[in-house]
Amino acid sequence: MDGYISIREAAEKWGVSERLVQKLCTEGRIPGAQKFSGSWAVPADAGKPEDQRRARHRAAAPQEAPAATPHPAAQTAGRTLMPLMNTPFAPGQCLAAVEAMEEGPRRDIALAEYHYFSGHPEEAAREVKGYFTSPDLGTRLSACLIFAFASLSLGDIPQARSALGEVERTLYAAGEASPTYRAAAGFVAATAAVLLHLPMPDRLPPAEDFMSLLPPGLRAFALYVHSHYLYLQKDYGRSAGMAEATLAMGAAQYPIPAIYLNLVAVMDYMSLKQTDRAESHLLAAWELARPDDLIEGFGEHHGLLGGMLESVLKKEWPEEFRRIISITYRFSWGWRRIHNPDTGHQVADNLTTTEFAVAMLAARGWTNEEIAGHMGISSHTVKRHLAEAKRKLQINTRQELGKYMLQ
Length: 407
Fold this sequence. Notes:
Elements: E1 4-6, H1 7-14, H2 18-26, E2 34-36, E3 39-43, H3 52-60, H4 74-77, H5 94-99, H6 105-117, H7 121-128, H8 137-154, H9 157-172, H10 179-195, H11 207-210, H12 216-232, H13 236-248, H14 255-271, H15 275-289, H16 296-301, H17 308-312, H18 318-343, H19 353-363, H20 368-375, H21 379-393
Antiparallel strand pairs: 1-3, 2-3
Helix pairs in contact: 1-2, 6-7, 6-8, 7-8, 8-9, 8-10, 8-18, 9-10, 10-12, 12-13, 12-14, 13-14, 14-15, 19-21, 20-21
């Protein structure tokens, strides 16, 4: 058809997935799009539809209070603390953003972040080893946090515990220190505790005491951490609202925090059984992550995403899906070696990722038919996965699954 392009061509033009273009056409959000031979024809001059969440936020802006003025210390609090997390860049330009930094510790830490978030823990761990005793607080805390989580994927639990112990010691030493010091220590300690689903440290300052001291990118990630904490408290509505509000206020320009904010929204909406909204957030995270291969977060969150990776990514991006699952197995093995003994909650570690996803949904009250429809498999396959999960866990009933699932 003259004057029209295909779904694939539109996806390439706008830098999004074909699945998202198909969804936009079906929802009538691309003016002039026409159904043709079982697919859609998109007007060649059509622009990429605006994210509805941003439009809603802009419409509401006159009634909202202006954003708080950052504390003066925010200008320096995060310069050396997780610098890549605090750097805005266009999707596809992550490594270029790192290479544009001046040579030195800040650039080295940013490169370690890039390698960690792109699923290369060996390189990340190697790059931060020289900074465990750095006199600069942000550099030292960054090195400890990256090394701790990289060590989980590398199966080196003593090294992970050592790095986490240094984070805790730094927090305990922050009592009489400057507000900037306490903000940095509180941010890293809270991040470690929440992502490992551990109790918050006793000496952690209230979030409101340090949130404003963080620069914008780190503040966005801190709000992801707080949203994740609300999710763990089963306050799914507030968690999703916080994640979406943070994204609407500009966090999307910081891709790493934005990926994690979208993923926690997926977790919330799957818990609320609002699968369309969960899928929208997963695709938003994927659009940010895929150009730079920032897939680590998807592997870390797999068990909490309720089969959404299998439903959305597995068929269209099979190679990336396989790599994400590989990350999941490595990371979750180490994660359980910290979480299980420290909490007494025996999250299952002998299930396949598919068995875990099916069991997680079943434990939350989904029927076999609902699970099958969501994950694109038959009810018989769901039943088979559940039977195998119960056999491995040595339990007899569906109700007992919850004891071994993520909270």
